[in-house]
């Protein structure tokens, strides 16, 4: 990062605004008021009044949410700063804005409604299951209209009902079947006949380069202004975990649009080829880092996807990069959010592999693991609240699955630890995609041994039993206490031992999937002695994974 701003620890909870700034109490029964939750920061959403004469805003912060999980300090600062910037911007645009801190969102609406007695309240349907349920009950008591958060006037492209209709009757939900519908509907990278440009819907197989010796552009981190600094003081006071500084996430729409432009201009061209690569010395590689802004509503997914498609159409980037990025935004993101509503509330407790081990201490204190690739990823989360997709999936979740961790605490950790995490997006990704806690939308577990990690971190893969060749010193396998070419014994990479042990343990379930057959026949070729040694090595590693005694409680329903 290019800058550093001092932050005092002075307490900074929102204080009452001076009397002249306070919202005038609307005439009883005369006002239309829009309830704004922290992820609704987009005045183009259907619940918002078009002009100041059409209604006022009630912007809510909650005490319950920051207390519910040990959120990363950068996440707390980001959400609070973005919300307060939004309040300032709406006021500057002439809107009457009541900004309140309530015990929880429901209490905030009730207190306000009791005070102002508005004729009508409007809100976007809350994006989290528990808050959505409470707002629906509230709508039976108060004149509250809930607008779908998808479709026209919504943040997402698909309405909840449209996704439910698509999902109905399908045994397994597959993103690959959903994605072309979105491409066609929004006319992104399709020809006049609705066929995909380039002749294929996905160019995923071209996105497998390692990023060794590639120059990586800098991220244009944003210097905190006074509002962000006050939010950082709040995060310092309230937060229990995560490094706060340097903080540089965009907190306004203008800043987020600047990041989008910077990404399209400087990194998108290389996004496709290096999408799955991992480099410890260049953590962000060519990723957009737009998820925090998208998830707060500072950017709309369609404008983000269109920016990528436009760059392809004017010849600035190749198709695999444009398609790869569009697939993430209108494919995976929409699909994951649809799956969340489709599978809730059961998704929270899905655990089809029966994994029960608690979260190891290293997730909170990365220095407690000697496994270098895992430690690198966990350090990145601790220091920035971010890692890119492949580190989330193929390092952290792969490890969690192979180690037999209970998906629920892992999901809680993801929710707390990432700057872009909300239940609607982390839960399906962690429990479904990452840990195979349900087979509702993944047909096989995303698990891999050290060979995959070596390859994606730019190390030429070694044959088992041979010494690792000389590799770039920054590659995690080159700095690790374990040997990626060994499957059992004290120096064996735990990813190897736990991988083969996982396949052996879940053999019967995995054998149902034809894509697992080749791997299982490799397992079958191992001698009983080798399998025994692998099981012992895996168990010895798992036995080292003690949880951290934090005393932290997790309340999934808070907010
Ligand atoms: C275990 C796990 C947990 C995750 N938790 C979150 C989370 O809490 N919040 C979150 O926004 N994303 C989550 N993701 C999805 C994805 O990893 C992040 O969206 C992405 O890494 C964010 O970084 P980026 O903006 O640089 O993404 P890029 O690589 O630049 O991708 C562009 C955009 O595509 C979208 N996207 C891509 N994949 C997914 C996906 N699987 N689900 C939803 N959106 C996707 C995001 O909006 C992202 O900003 C998770 C993935 C996994 C495997």
Model description:
This protein has about 550 residues and is mainly alpha-helical. The protein is about 45% helix and about 5% strand. The protein is built from 21 helices and five strands. The chain has helices spanning about 65-70, 75-90, 105-115, 130-140, 160-165, 175-185, 225-240, 255-265, 270, 290-295, 300-315, 320-345, 370-385, 390-400, 405-415, 425-435, 450-455, 495-505, 505-510, 515-525, 530-540, and strands at about 30-35, 55-60, 95-100, 120-125, 145. Helix 4 links the parallel strand 4 and strand 5. The structure holds flavin-adenine dinucleotide. Flavin-adenine dinucleotide binds near residues 295 and 421. Flavin-adenine dinucleotide binds next to helix 10, helix 12, helix 14 and helix 16.
Q: Please tell me the overall pLDDT.
A: 92
For the biggest sheet, the summary is:
5 strands, parallel
- Widest sheet, order of strands: 3-2-1-4-5
Q: What structural class do helix, strand and pairing data support? A: mainly alpha
CATH architecture of the largest domain: Orthogonal Bundle
What is the CA–CA distance across the termini? 33 Å
Strand content: under 5%
Please report the first level of CATH classification, the CATH class of the largest domain: Mainly Alpha
* Record field, number of beta strands: 5
Question: In terms of per-residue confidence, which ranges show pLDDT below 50 for 5 or more consecutive residues?
Answer: 1-23, 461-465
Relative helix content? 40-55%
Which ions and ligands are bound to the chains?
flavin-adenine dinucleotide
Task: Give the SSE order as H and E letters.
Answer: EEHHEHEHEHHHHHHHHHHHHHHHHH
- CATH fold-type name of the largest domain: DNA Cyclobutane Dipyrimidine Photolyase, subunit A, domain 3
The CATH homology group name of the largest domain: DNA Cyclobutane Dipyrimidine Photolyase, subunit A, domain 3
């Amino acid at each position: 990062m290019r800058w550093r701003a001092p932050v005092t620890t002075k307490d900074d909870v929102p204080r009452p605004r001076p009397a002249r700034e306070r919202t005038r109490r609307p005439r009883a029964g005369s006002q239309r008021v829009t309830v704004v939750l922290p992820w609704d920061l987009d005045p183009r959403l259907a619940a918002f009044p078009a002009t100041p004469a059409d209604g006022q805003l009630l912007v809510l912060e909650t005490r319950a949410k920051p207390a519910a999980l040990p959120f990363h300090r950068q996440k707390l600062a980001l959400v609070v700063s973005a919300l307060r910037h939004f309040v300032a911007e709406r006021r500057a645009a002439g809107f009457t804005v009541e900004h309140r801190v309530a015990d929880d969102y429901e209490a905030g609406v009730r207190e306000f409604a009791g005070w102002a007695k508005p004729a009508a309240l409007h809100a976007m349907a809350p994006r989290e299951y528990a808050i959505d349920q409470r707002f629906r009950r509230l709508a039976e008591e108060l004149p509250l209209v809930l607008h779908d958060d998808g479709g026209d006037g919504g943040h997402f492209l698909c309405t909840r009902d449209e996704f439910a209709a698509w999902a109905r009757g399908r045994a397994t939900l597959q993103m690959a079947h959903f994605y072309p519908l979105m491409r066609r509907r929004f006319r992104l990278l399709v020809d006049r006949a609705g066929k995909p440009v380039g002749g294929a819907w996905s160019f995923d197989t071209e996105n497998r380069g390692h990023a060794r010796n590639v120059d990586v552009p800098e991220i244009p981190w944003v210097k905190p202004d006074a509002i962000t600094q006050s939010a950082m003081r709040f995060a310092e006071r309230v937060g229990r975990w995560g490094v706060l500084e340097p903080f540089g996430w965009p907190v306004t729409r203008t800043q987020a649009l600047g990041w989008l432009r910077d990404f399209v201009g400087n990194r998108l061209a290389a996004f496709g080829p290096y999408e799955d690569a991992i480099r410890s010395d260049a953590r962000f590689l060519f990723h957009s880092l737009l998820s925090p802004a998208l998830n707060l509503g500072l950017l709309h997914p369609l404008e983000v996807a269109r920016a990528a498609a436009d760059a392809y159409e004017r010849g600035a980037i190749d198709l695999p990069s444009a398609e790869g990025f569009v697939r993430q935004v209108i494919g995976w993101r929409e699909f994951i959010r649809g799956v969340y509503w489709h599978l809730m509330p059961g998704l929270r407790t899905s655990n089809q592999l029966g994994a029960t081990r608690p979260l190891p201490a290293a997730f909170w204190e990365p220095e407690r693991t000697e496994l270098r690739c895992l430690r690198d990823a966990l350090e990145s989360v601790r220091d920035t609240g971010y890692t890119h997709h492949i580190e989330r999936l193929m390092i952290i979740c792969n490890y969690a699955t192979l180690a037999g961790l209970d998906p629920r605490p892992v999901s809680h950790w993801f929710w707390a630890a990432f700057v872009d995490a909300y239940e609607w997006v982390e839960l399906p990704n962690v429990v479904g995609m990452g840990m195979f806690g349900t087979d509702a939308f993944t047909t096989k577990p995303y698990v891999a041994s050290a060979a995959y990690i070596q390859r994606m971190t730019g190390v030429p893969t070694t044959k088992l039993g041979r010494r690792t060749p000389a590799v770039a010193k920054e590659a995690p396998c080159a700095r690790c206490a374990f040997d990626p070419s060994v499957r059992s014994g004290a120096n064996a990479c735990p990813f190897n031992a736990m991988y083969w042990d996982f396949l052996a343990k879940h053999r019967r379930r995995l054998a149902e999937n034809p894509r697992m057959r080749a791997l299982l026949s490799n397992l079958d070729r191992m001698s009983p002695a080798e399998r025994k040694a692998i099981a012992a090595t895996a168990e010895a590693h798992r036995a080292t994974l003690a949880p951290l005694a934090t005393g932290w409680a997790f309340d999934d329903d808070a907010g």
